[in-house]
Every structure is written in C-alpha cells, then in structure tokens.
C-alpha cells in the first residue's frame, strides 16, 4: 500500500509541473551487480536484474527524473553467516525491492547525461523463510545515493550508475552493519 502511495505521489507531482516543461516517459531494464558489506557476506559481487519506468521533466540542461524500478538482488553469504546467526546452510539470499530513485539530470552535451540523487527501496518479499528470501533478517527499507552517466542515442538510453547504501539492513541484531553497494547497467527507451 505504501509503495502505491509513493508511486501516485510522484506521478502527481510530475504531471502538475510538466505542462510547461519537456516531459518524457520511458521504460528501462538491465543488470545489477550487487554486494552487501559485513563479515557475514561473501566479499564478492553477485548478479541480479532491474526493470521499470521513468518520467523526465526537463528544464533546459537540467531535468528531474523519478523512476520506479523492480530490483532483484542475489547475495552470497560467507561461511560464517550460519554460525554467527544460528541458521542452517544459508548460502544465498534473494531480495526483491521496489526502488524509487529521484535523479537530477545534467546534460552538458546533447548525447550525454550525468545523473545523481537519492533512492528509497522497499523490500517486497512476502515469504517468511530466511532461506527463501531473507525477509526476516533484512530491514524493509534501504536508502541509497546514486551517481552515474547515460548516453543518449535518439530514443535509446544506455546507462551505468553506482548506488551506495546509507541504511543498516541488519534486522536481526546489532552485531554488525550490513550496507548495500550496487552497479547498474542497462538500456532505456524514451517513448
């Protein structure tokens, strides 16, 4: 319910300000390269995907671009995760987030856009089993900062960005802090 209200609020704000500005809608998707910091997790990056849409409201060289993305994040635990947290044989955790980045776009030249801004993600997994998806171990929200670049070729956008998590995701105890890091690469289509 909260995610639907966030989506409705973003589109309402964008639609009311867009009448006198350039408005672009689009879809996007690509790969996530993820890592969670903390001694309970493998010190390696793992792979997932993202898919969603965006709205861009332009003001000459600048634009505001809210997005709605579905992110799947796969994480490998280290060998001591089960020992520290008393779970049996938890090798992998899969998290699914509904993410809402709100980016400031700066276009120094026609085909290049620099992007930066916050991203709030809501954990959407419904299962109660840690082995299936990790919901009981991970907090339901993650605040991140994004930065990246996008190459614009006609209606096609090729982008890469880095997200660093600011929130502690550990919802079990205070033994250690778990923070997210992610690289996203993908392709978008401006409609």
**DSSP helical segment count:** 3
Unreliable parts? 81-88, 126-137
Count of strand segments: 8
Strand order of the largest sheet: 1-2-3-4-5-6-7-8
Class derived from helix and strand content: mainly beta
Whole-angstrom Rg:
18 Å
Helical percent range?
Answer: 10-25%
Beta-strand percent range:
over 45%
Task: Encode the helix/strand succession as letters.
Answer: HEEEHEEHEEE
- The gross shape turns out to be elongated
How would you sum up this structure, described in words?
The protein is mainly β and 191 residues long. The protein has three helices and eight strands. An eight-stranded antiparallel β-barrel has the order 1-2-3-4-5-6-7-8. It is elongated.
Helix and strand arrangement:
Blueprint: H1 2-17, E1 22-37, E2 46-59, E3 62-76, H2 81-85, E4 92-109, E5 112-123, H3 130-133, E6 141-153, E7 156-165, E8 179-190
Antiparallel strand pairs: 1-2, 1-8, 2-3, 3-4, 4-5, 5-6, 6-7, 7-8
Characteristics:
single chain, 191 residues, mainly beta, 3 helices, 8 strands, 58% strand
């Amino acid at each position: 319910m909260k995610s639907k209200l966030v989506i409705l609020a973003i589109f309402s704000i964008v639609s009311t300000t867009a009448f006198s500005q350039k408005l672009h809608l689009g879809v996007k998707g690509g790969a996530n390269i993820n890592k969670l910091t903390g001694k309970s997790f493998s010190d390696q990056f793992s792979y997932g995907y993202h898919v969603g849409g965006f709205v861009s409201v332009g003001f000459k060289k600048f634009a505001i671009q809210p997005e709605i993305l579905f992110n799947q994040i796969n994480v490998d635990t280290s060998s001591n995760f089960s020992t520290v947290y008393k779970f049996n044989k938890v090798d992998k955790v899969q998290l699914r987030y509904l993410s809402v980045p709100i980016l400031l776009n700066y276009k120094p030249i026609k085909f290049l856009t620099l992007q930066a801004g916050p991203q709030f993600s809501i954990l959407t997994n419904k299962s109660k089993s840690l082995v299936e998806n990790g919901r009981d171990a991970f907090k339901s929200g993650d605040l991140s900062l994004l930065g990246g670049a996008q190459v614009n070729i006609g209606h096609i956008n090729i982008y890469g960005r880095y997200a660093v998590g600011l929130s502690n995701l550990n919802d079990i105890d205070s033994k250690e802090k778990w923070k997210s890091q992610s690289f996203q690469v993908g392709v978008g289509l401006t409609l």
